[in-house]
């Protein structure tokens, strides 16, 4: 029975690995694998119960003695082994279940599930090994599979480097392990673990010492002990489930090895002190590494180094039982911490809205609390019987408890009862920690032999660390900070001396005295122009959509995107192959292509015995992979080469800025094959993360809080050892020689490099676009001084150019013996051959094949005909093709939209009087709810921006930061401070005190070692609950809002009346009011989501819209406001009540607020309206479920709100394509697929175009920005989007996210927001604006707003005007005219059909 139970435990993950690889459907394979791993975890729990109540389980399946030492193959399970097996199986099951949803749709998800299951099997084989041979086999196999998990995204260079580094280190550790185990086996010739343990005393001391040292090396490598620790932080570039599995489970095998071989460890001379020393060094170093980090997952990774070091030190002290407890507690806590890391930004946002502490309580209160905690710890230890290991545990418990109490009681306004309760709870937890540790140690029955002296030394080290940490935080050493920031210093990784062996020369210091007086101003102007190429990137907790090229909206879209391609190497359109797939799918027709092609210049072309007109020739270039297809037949290619050689040269079209200079680093990289640009990127990005993430670091980068980026770096850079890796000598002198003003420093460096002033703007543009995220945030920070650490684009440029000058200068001296001057380097290196004019022969050959021109015909064509073919391909270059395809796709969408709006449909008309008039946000997600609500009952719906016309900032009671509840184009006109009842504020202060206690215990340098064990118990329950019911724990949304009295204190009556009137008139709701008027905002509930604000209302500043709806409703319900509105011609009757609501776009449920204020006579109507809303939401869930990946059942959609592994709670605004401002009659009853912003507008009451101007300059522009952000995040998700969510780590105080182990601040939207892993979910089209109004009103708005005119004329969006009288559609034409658009006479597609497979030569487009 026992063997069968162990076999089931092993069979679970083994079957999961096979199922993940063999089940055809990837989603079903993931479900099978996670279920089988869960089954294995249940069996492991049963095994633990069996072993806990009975003897150990030994079972030998085979005895091998034919080759080498004799050893057994089978299982051996004692209490510790059973606990470890349950830990590994449980974590694997949780990680697999999490990954099943987290990586849903990713191509590599199946392989990841298989590797997790296989690594689990290997670890179990090692853990249950009865012999050292089986243990070694399992150890090596688990390491190999772990490297495969680390290299999951092997297409990324950084991931490949991390995998190679880890593989090499693991090889060293594996060799050491095999060597150490071989030495233990050699004397007796028996490799069974029991035999080795029994005869360990018979071995000579030197052999045990050598074997112990080798085993320590193996354990140190696998558990990332200093100095073999660098592989662990680099693994953050793997998906989050891999990080959790690795940091929680796989690194623990080193502790398991030491505990299993405890008799060897204790018998080996000097082994225990050495292990304690190694562990303490790693523990202290890891604490320092973690203290300087500014991102969540980076901090967790470094803390793993510290925790593993402490566990190793416990083994070195002889406290193997405590080490086992620490191993389990840390593993569970770290798994939960990694898997929930995405929720840290939501937690930071919540904390910012919580009451801030008003000052510490009296010293007497703090002293009493501290005394109570220490007394509880001492009393518990004395009652348990004081021991050396117990004393160490008491020190840790006391440190964690004191830190928790000290931080929790930092608020003088904390109620006395809450303070007393918290103090007693912390003391009880500390005592329970000591009791649980003693009980668990006794139950495990592991060896214990701690020395009081050793424990005293260890405790002294930890106390010294705590004192040093307090000192360093206020008076930190720059050199030590840099050492910790680089995870323990840096070592040269390249040969820095020339071949002759001489020492590298110091950098040439630029001369500041050669500057022209106007150089500073020139640099400022050039930097301002360069900054226009990046969009402002706001903190992620107030995510608002912006056009990444907002600064270039003064130039046409085609030119701005061409500049971006040239300067940044970004992709600005979908590949032509993807557009050709759209053609095959029917989403674009040949008629659409023909409509957007320029008029043909040449006449028909004779191809043998047939003639092809110019349009057909261009269509052939577009419809076939002429520029990007497979190699053509050799004979056709040979003829094409010969025919092209006979033609005269043809100039190649010039792209904007094509002649701009490369940067110094780019020039050297191209000439020498180095990677200086990437190295400079890493250095600059690292510094930005350190400086701008200061609020999140426990030991922030030294210097005053208000010190600027360049000033701080200039003061500290001389102590940075990192540039020495590239042979840089004299960086400190270089930095000291640069002027303190960043613009002057940039000018000095540009002059030194030899960049002519006319090219400064282009040079700086290329520099900023290397890191557009950090550059964009610098632009935002410059416009919002005081909102965070100070930084400007000039600061960023000064730091970057200094690093570039240093690294490139060292490379130029080393390889070329030249100074870092562009002209000198260009003269000494081979020039790059210019691009050939015209086209290549393979392009001509593929075009001939597309036209069915064979070899003989191509050979006989006249030269003029060949020239026409060449010119056709040359006119439609890949970039030009993309522009044509984009225009055709937009033409197709407009054609289909017009067909839907023009066709005769049964427009629903609500009977008079209507039950209610509901005003929704114009968000595309509201379109579906409006449509279904109108179909469900007599309700009239309207569209308006979701802030409902009130541009205010709200501040919750006592909060340290407010929330702007208005579009980014506006500034709040008032700050509304919320007032709450005293008991409610006290309750919030109490909750915040508990959070401070938790955070302080976790951050304490000594108490953190005890904290993880206590937190592990809590995390166990959380993991079990989330694993069993992942969607049942949706975070509670804070719907509290200021009252009408709060609003009256912030805004005058005249202001309230002004905004109320503007809202009602813009909507067109000025008469005929129903008994109920519903103002319905929207928000999205999601868990563990850094991009939660991106799902909320953009018109409300990235916040939920319920608060704005409640404020607007409160204004409209005020009798004083209604009386003033009546004087202005808007009679809002007393019998009408304005109701506030909020549509949750994840669950499609609508919550109505302040129902206690509804008059009793209207309560039946409110009940009926609630039912209609619920019915509409249910219908919308059915519609949305069909569009989500995997087509989940509609009733399961609300669970996505609480699923912590769900990367796509909803599609948000993916698919947005049009903005319609018109009466509802134009769109009523039409299914627009939740792709259209719907704004109500009635021109009959807007004679001066005031309302139309408000719509076109506000909501329309915001919608265009949203559209362009989705556009660019789709076409280039790596550079213009946020990349994949699966490797994101939250940075700073809600600043943003990084990918993996560092790099650029991510901008835009994550890949999962615009695609399902195999294809885009968003069609990247520029916004189509449809305005139903007379032309003179639209002309008036465009004439008064040149910026809006630039957006339209520049092609950033399309504008179509629908004549209210005739229904004719027109678009702007040159000269201020309006060009009629022909009615769509042929509609090939009304709904998107299923895609046909692509031809063999074209690959699926994936971002």
From TrEMBL:
For binding Zn(2+), which residues are annotated in this chain's numbering?
921, 923, 1082, 1097
Q: Which Pfam families does its entry note?
A: DabA, Proton_antipo_M
The alphabetical list of record keywords is: Cell membrane, Membrane, Metal-binding, Transmembrane, Transmembrane helix, Transport, Zinc
Cofactor section: Zn(2+)
- Using the UniProt record, give the first listed, main subcellular location: membrane
For this record, the Gene Ontology CC terms, alphabetical, are: endomembrane system; plasma membrane
**Membrane-spanning parts:** 32-53, 80-99, 119-147, 168-186, 206-224, 244-265, 271-292, 304-325, 390-409, 421-446, 452-472, 1006-1025
Protein family according to the UniProt entry: Belongs to the inorganic carbon transporter (TC 9.A.2) DabA family.
Q: What is this protein called?
A: Probable inorganic carbon transporter subunit DabA
Organism whose genome encodes this protein = Micromonospora robiginosa
Task: Tell me the gene name.
Answer: dabA
């Amino acid at each position: 029975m026992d063997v069968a139970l162990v076999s089931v435990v092993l069979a679970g993950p083994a079957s999961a690995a096979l199922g993940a690889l063999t089940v055809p459907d990837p989603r079903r394979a993931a479900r099978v694998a996670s279920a089988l791993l869960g089954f294995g975890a249940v069996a492991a729990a049963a095994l633990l119960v069996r072993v806990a109540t009975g003897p150990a389980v030994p079972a030998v399946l085979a005895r091998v003695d034919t080759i080498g030492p004799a050893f057994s193959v089978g299982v051996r399970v004692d209490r510790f082994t059973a606990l470890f097996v349950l830990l590994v199986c449980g974590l694997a099951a949780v990680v697999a279940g999490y990954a099943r949803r987290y990586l849903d749709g990713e191509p590599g998800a199946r392989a990841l599930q298989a590797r997790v299951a296989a690594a689990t099997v290997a670890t179990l084989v090692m853990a249950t090994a009865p012999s050292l041979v089986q243990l070694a086999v399992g150890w090596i196999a688990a390491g190999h599979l772990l490297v495969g998990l680390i290299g999951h995204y092997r297409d990324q260079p950084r991931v490949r480097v991390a995998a190679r580094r880890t593989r090499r280190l693991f090889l060293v550790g594996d060799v050491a392990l095999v060597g150490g185990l071989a030495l233990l086996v050699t004397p007796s010739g028996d490799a069974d673990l029991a035999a080795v343990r029994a005869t360990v005393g018979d071995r000579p001391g030197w052999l045990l010492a050598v074997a112990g040292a080798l085993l320590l090396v193996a354990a140190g490598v696998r558990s990332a002990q200093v100095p073999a620790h660098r592989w662990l932080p680099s693994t953050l570039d793997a998906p989050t489930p891999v990080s959790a599995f690795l940091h929680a489970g796989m690194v623990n095998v080193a502790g398991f090895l030491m505990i299993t071989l405890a008799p060897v460890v204790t018998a080996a001379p000097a082994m225990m002190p050495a292990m304690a020393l190694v562990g303490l060094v790693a523990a202290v170093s890891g604490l320092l590494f973690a203290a300087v980090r500014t991102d969540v997952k980076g901090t967790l990774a470094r803390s793993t180094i510290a925790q593993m070091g402490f566990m190793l030190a416990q083994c070195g002290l002889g406290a193997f039982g405590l080490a086992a407890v620490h191993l389990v507690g840390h593993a569970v806590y770290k798994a939960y911490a990694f898997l929930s890391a995405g929720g840290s930004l939501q937690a930071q946002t919540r904390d910012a809205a919580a009451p801030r502490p008003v000052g510490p309580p009296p010293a007497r209160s703090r002293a009493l609390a501290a005394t109570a905690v220490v007394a509880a710890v001492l009393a518990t230890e004395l009652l348990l019987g004081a021991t050396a290991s117990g004393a160490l545990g008491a020190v840790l418990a006391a440190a964690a408890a004191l830190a928790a109490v000290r931080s929790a009681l930092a608020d003088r306004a904390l109620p006395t009862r809450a303070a007393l309760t918290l103090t007693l709870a912390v003391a009880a937890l500390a005592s329970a920690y000591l009791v649980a540790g003693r009980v668990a140690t006794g139950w495990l029955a592991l060896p214990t032999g701690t020395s009081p002296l050793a424990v005293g030394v260890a405790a002294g080290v930890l106390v010294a660390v705590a004192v040093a940490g307090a000192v360093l935080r206020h008076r930190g050493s720059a050199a030590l900070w840099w050492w910790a920031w680089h995870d323990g210093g840096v070592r040269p990784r390249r040969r820095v001396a020339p071949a002759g062996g001489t020492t590298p020369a110091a950098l040439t210091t630029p001369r500041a005295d050669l500057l022209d007086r106007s150089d500073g101003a020139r640099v400022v102007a050039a930097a301002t122009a360069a900054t226009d190429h990046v969009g402002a990137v706001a903190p992620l907790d107030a995510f608002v959509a912006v056009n990444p090229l907002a600064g270039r909206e003064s130039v046409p879209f085609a030119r701005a995107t061409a500049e971006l391609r040239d300067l940044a190497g970004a992709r600005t359109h979908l590949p032509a192959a993807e557009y050709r797939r759209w053609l095959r799918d029917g989403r674009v027709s040949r008629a659409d292509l023909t409509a957007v092609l320029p008029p043909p210049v040449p006449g028909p072309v004779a191809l043998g015995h047939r003639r092809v007109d110019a349009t057909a020739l261009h269509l052939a270039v577009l419809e076939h992979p002429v520029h990007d297809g497979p190699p053509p037949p050799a004979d056709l290619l040979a003829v094409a080469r010969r025919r092209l050689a006979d033609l005269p040269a043809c100039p190649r079209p010039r792209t904007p800025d094509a002649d701009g200079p490369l940067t110094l680093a780019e020039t050297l990289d191209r000439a020498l094959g180095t990677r200086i640009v990437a190295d400079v990127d890493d250095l600059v990005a690292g510094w930005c993360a350190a400086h701008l993430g200061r609020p999140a670091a426990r030991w922030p980068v030294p210097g005053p809080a208000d010190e600027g980026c360049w000033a701080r770096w200039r003061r500290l850079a001389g102590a940075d050892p990192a540039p020495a890796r590239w042979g840089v000598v004299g960086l400190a002198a270089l930095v000291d020689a640069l002027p303190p003003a960043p613009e002057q420093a940039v000018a000095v460096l540009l002059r030194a490099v030899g960049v002519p002033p006319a090219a400064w703007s282009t040079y700086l543009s290329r520099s900023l676009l290397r890191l557009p995220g950090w550059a964009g945030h610098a632009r935002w920070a410059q416009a919002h001084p005081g909102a965070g650490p100070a930084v400007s684009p000039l600061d960023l440029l000064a730091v970057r150019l200094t690093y570039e000058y240093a690294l490139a200068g060292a490379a130029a001296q080393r390889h070329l013996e030249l100074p870092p001057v562009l002209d000198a380097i260009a003269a000494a290196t081979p020039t790059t051959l210019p691009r050939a004019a015209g086209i290549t022969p393979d392009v001509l050959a593929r075009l001939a094949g597309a036209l069915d021109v064979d070899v003989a015909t191509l050979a006989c064509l006249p030269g003029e005909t060949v020239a026409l073919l060449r010119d056709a391909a040359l006119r439609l270059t890949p970039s030009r093709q993309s522009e044509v395809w984009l225009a055709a796709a937009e033409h197709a969408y407009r054609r289909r939209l017009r067909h839907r709006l023009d066709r005769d449909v049964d427009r629903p008309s609500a009977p008079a009087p209507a039950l209610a008039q509901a005003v929704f946000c114009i968000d595309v997600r509201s379109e579906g709810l409006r449509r279904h609500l109108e179909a469900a009952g007599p309700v009239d719906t309207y569209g308006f921006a979701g802030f409902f016309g009130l541009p205010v900032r709200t501040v919750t009671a006592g909060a340290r930061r407010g929330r702007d509840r208005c579009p980014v184009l506006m500034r709040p006109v008032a700050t509304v401070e919320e007032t709450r009842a005293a008991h409610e504020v006290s309750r919030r202060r109490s909750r915040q005190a508990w959070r401070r206690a938790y955070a302080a215990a976790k951050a304490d340098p000594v108490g953190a070692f005890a904290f993880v064990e206590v937190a592990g118990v809590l995390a166990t329950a959380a993991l079990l609950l989330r694993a069993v019911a992942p969607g049942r724990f949706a975070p509670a949304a804070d719907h509290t809002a200021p009252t009408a009295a709060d609003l009256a204190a912030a805004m005058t009556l005249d202001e309230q009346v002004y905004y109320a009137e503007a809202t009602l008139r813009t909507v067109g709701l000025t008469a005929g009011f129903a008994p109920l008027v519903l103002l319905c905002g929207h928000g999205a509930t999601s868990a563990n989501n850094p991009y939660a604000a991106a799902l909320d209302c953009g018109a409300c500043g990235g916040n939920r819209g319920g608060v704005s709806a409640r404020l607007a409703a409160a204004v409209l319900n005020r009798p004083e406001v209604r009386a003033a509105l009546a004087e202005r011609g808007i009679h809002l009757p007393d019998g009408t009540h304005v109701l506030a609501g909020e549509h949750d776009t994840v669950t499609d449920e609508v919550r109505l607020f302040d129902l206690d204020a509804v008059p009793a006579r209207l309560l039946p109507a409110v009940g009926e309206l609630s039912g209609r809303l619920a019915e509409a939401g249910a219908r919308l869930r059915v519609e949305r479920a069909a569009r989500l990946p995997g087509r989940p059942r509609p009733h399961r959609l609300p669970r996505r709100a609480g699923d912590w592994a769900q990367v796509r709670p909803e599609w948000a605004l993916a698919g947005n394509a049009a903005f319609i401002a018109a009466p509802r009659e134009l769109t009523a009853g039409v299914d627009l697929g939740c792709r259209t912003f719907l704004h109500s507008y009635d021109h009959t009451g807007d004679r001066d175009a005031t309302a139309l101007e408000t719509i076109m300059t506000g909501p329309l522009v915001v919608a265009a920005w949203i559209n362009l952000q989705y556009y660019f995040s789709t076409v280039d998700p790596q550079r213009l989007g946020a990349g994949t969510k699966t490797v994101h780590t939250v940075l700073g105080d809600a600043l943003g996210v990084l990918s993996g182990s560092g790099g650029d601040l991510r901008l835009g939207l994550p890949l999962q927001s615009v695609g399902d892993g195999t294809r885009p979910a968003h069609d990247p089209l520029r916004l189509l604006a449809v305005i139903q109004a007379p032309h003179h009103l639209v002309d008036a708005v465009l004439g008064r707003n040149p910026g809006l005119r630039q957006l339209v004329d520049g092609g950033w969006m399309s504008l179509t005007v629908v004549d209210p009288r005739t229904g004719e559609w027109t678009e702007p034409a040159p000269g201020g005219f309006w060009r009629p658009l022909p009615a769509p006479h042929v509609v090939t597609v009304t709904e998107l059909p299923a895609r046909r497979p692509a031809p063999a030569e074209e690959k699926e487009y994936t971002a």
